[in-house]
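Subject: for your reference before the review

Hello V.,

The reviewers asked for a structural picture of the protein, and I figured it would be easier to keep everything in one thread rather than splitting it across files. Below is the amino acid sequence we used in the manuscript, unchanged from the supplementary table.
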Amino acid sequence: MLRKSFLLWPAVVASAVGLNACNQVANFAKTKSGIEYKIFDKAGKAKTIKPETAEADYKKNVGQIIALHVEYRTAKDSVLFQSRKQQMGYPVRVPLQEVARKGGLEEAISLLQPGDSGVFRFNADSLSLKTTGQPAPPQIKKHGNTMTLYVKVDAIQSQADAMAAQQKAMQEMQAKMKQHEEKQKPLDDKTIQEYVQKNNLQAQKTASGIYYIITQPGSGPKPTPGQTVSVNYRGTLLNGKEFDSSAKQGRPIEFPIGVGQVIPGWDEGIPLLNKGAKAVLLIPSSLAYGQRGAGADIPADAVLRFDVELVDVKAAPPQPPMGMMPGGAPQGAPQGR
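And here is what came back from the structure prediction:
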C-alpha cells in the first residue's frame, strides 16, 4: 500500500489545496535547471521572481522549518497527493537545507517566501531521478511525463517554534480523530452487518469490530507478536473495487506481527488465522485508514475487505545490535497510519 512520506518521491495521495490564483498556470517562467514555475503573493497576484535573489533569501532561512500545504497532480490533472487531507488541514513541516541538486523539489521550495503560493511543473523522470535515482513509476508515467506541484507556504519558523506548533497540532489532530472514530464506529458496524447479510456470509466478530470469515482452515500455528508472516492478499472496497493485491507485487508480502508496520486491522486480524488458512477480513475504517483515507482509491471512512491467505509463519528476526535500526516496512504491506 502507501508509505508515509513528504516531498520524497512521491507520497502520492489526494483533492484541492486551495491556492486561489495558482490555477492560472499559463505563461510559466523557467529556471536554468528546467523547472517551470509561477509564484503568487498573499493577495494572489503573480510575482516576478529572480532565482538569484530568491536563492540568497533562501540561504538566510537554512536551518529553520517551513510549514506548507502541498498537492501533486499528474499530466492529466489527476490528484496524487494532498497534504491538507492527510494532515486534516494542518501544514506539514520540513527542515530547510542547502539546495544540493538543482531541478528538484528543494529548488522549487527555495523560490517561496511566507504567504506565497506556487505552481511548479517538472519532468516526471527528471524529478524522480533527482529524488530516488530511479525513473518515474509506471503508475505516474501512464498519465504523462510531467508532474505539477501546488504549494502554499504557511510560515517559516525556528526549530523551537516549529516543534511547539507541531506538538499542538498533533494533540488537536489526535483529539479530532478520536472523536470522529467514536462517531464512525456504529456506522461502520452497521455497514459491515448489512454487507454480511447481503452476501450471506457466516462471519465472526472481534471485540474491536473486525468481522472475519475462515474460508479454508489452516493446520499450522497461529502467529504471535514479533513473528514474521507471509501473506497473499487482495484488498477491495465493499463495492468490489480492488485497490491493492499481493499479485501486483508478484509475491506474498512479509511483515512482523504486532509492531505497527501494518494497519491495526491486520495486526489483529492475521493472528486469528492458522498457517495455511484463507479468510475474509472486513475491517472498519478506524482500524484501517480512518477519516484520512489512503490514495485516490481508498476514500475517507472506508470499510475494507481483504481476502487473505496466511502462507507462512516464521520465528521473530534477531534483534539488531545497539545503535542500529531495522529497515522499513515491506513494499506492498498495508501501512500503519
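For the response letter, the relevant points are probably these. The CA atoms of residues 68 and 153 lie 4 Å apart. Residues 20-157 form a domain with the Chitinase A; domain 3 fold (CATH 3.10.50.40).

Happy to draft the paragraph if you're swamped.

O.
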